[in-house]
Amino acid sequence: MRYVSTRGAAPVLTFGEAMLTGLARDGGLYVPESLPRMTEGQIAALAGQSYEDVAFAVMRPFLGESFDDATFRRLIGAAYAGIGHPARAPLVQLGPNHFLLELFHGPTLAFKDFAMQLIGQLFQEALSRSGERITIVGATSGDTGSAAIEAFRGLSNVDVFILYPHGRVSEVQRRQMTTATDANVHALALEGDFDDCQAALKDMFNDFAFRDEVRLAGVNSINWARVLAQVVYYFTAAISLGAPHRPVSFTVPTGNFGDIFAGHVARGMGLPVGQLVIATNQNDILHRTLETGRQVKEGVQPSISPSMDIQVSSNFERALFDAYGRDGAVVTAQMEELKQSGGFAIGQGAWGWLKEHFASGRASEEETSATIRRTLDETGELLCPHSAVGVHVAEAFLGPVPMVTLATAHPAKFPDAVEAATGIRPPLPSRMADLYERSERVTRVPNDLAHLQALIRERIAG
Ligand SMILES: *Cc1c(COP(=O)(O)O)cnc(C)c1O
């Protein structure tokens, strides 16, 4: 299996290389040259198997020679042993033909653990083989950072720097990033918003001298290995509900488009996915893009679902690449236009392709709170605000095809919003009950590339 860049001008890589590289050198994102297809019989045979066994079957064809079967099985086992539910990604029913996929039983209580725990294992294995030392820099609107820290803390051949927008993450999210005591963990509070964090990260990757000097590696959702790990739960959920013998639809609370893109990959592999619904909060650039055929930046309005407060969705580029028949030159031109003028018009054919493959909806702040309250009243299920955005949007798409809404975080990760909606302050699971007592360690940094680079150099030298 070979990996190509969405901008068509970076070296073609193996799985292992693409994983350690993150962002391609032409500024694009790596995608497989073609998707492996599973037959109906192969998918049907996964029914009743463990999450780990399905994970192996779904991901193995993407790895090529980078990891052997026995090693990969061992790494999957180690990655998911820390998820505090035997099903790993259990389904609960909310109403007629509407199901919730609980992806928040991992160590940091958000779905990002599914990918991050696995790539922590994969990185460790690859680096211990090569003896290399790397610097991971991640940008986060909250959950990526804690998941990355949890996956990489204490590893001897990795330094982890996490950039988060100062004052714009929840207290639980912040504490999960700032209370790790391991010397290789560096939490950085950037004076700016999440897009500034993402831009700083992109700029570091595009500074090739710096990138090579510190051996920069990325674990943001642009990393193909993360997208791949998320493909698995689309399979386990759909198969539980009758796939491959009937289609199943999904609604996905969306920010950077990584999670929903994994659903698109599952469909491309042969899983009968009905609708794939993008659910946005009031920062609805993706919903507007689908409705108007134009992607236009509008700035970020902080919301009660902060992990979806984005202005630009980095993984959308992967969908655009497919929408344009995998023409890297067109994608490059559109991304340049976005950077220069803050927006671009999608060609008619590509817009049609996007509307055929994705649906979308948005939830206002009031609708999100009302959904948390009503879902608790009706079902007893306490939703986090991100999951509530998903449930609200999904309700417009319910019908004869089973709908699965992804519950992306545990309600205790966003206790203020949940308490405001319901009067109930959700407690943290007992294994992290002392989070509010642990001492914090964080460096506040200006939104300035040279400053950040100097700080990273200094920390990895020390
Ligand atoms: C990251 C995150 C999202 C958005 O996922 P993307 O893959 O960036 O679209 C939604 N909800 C929660 C809780 C998250 O942490």
What does this entry show, briefly?
45% of the residues lie in helices and 15% in strands. With 462 residues, it is α/β, with parallel strands linked by helices. It has a six-stranded mixed β-sheet with strand order 3-4-14-9-10-13, with helices on both faces. A five-stranded parallel β-sheet has the order 8-5-6-7-15, sandwiched between helices.
Descriptive report:
It is a single chain. It contains 19 helices and 15 strands. The chain is of the alpha/beta class. It has a domain at 91-108 and 224-422: Rossmann fold. The strands form four sheets. A six-stranded mixed beta sheet has the order 3-4-14-9-10-13, sandwiched between helices. The protein has a five-stranded parallel beta sheet with strand order 8-5-6-7-15, with helices on both faces. Strand 9 (248-253), helix 11 (258-268) and strand 10 form a beta-alpha-beta unit. The longest helix is centred in the N-terminal third of the chain and has 19 residues, at 112-130. It starts with a strand and ends with a helix. The mean pLDDT is 95. The structure holds pyridoxal-5'-phosphate (PLP). Pyridoxal-5'-phosphate (PLP) binds at residues 110, 112, 143, 221, 253-259, 307-308, 386, 408-409.
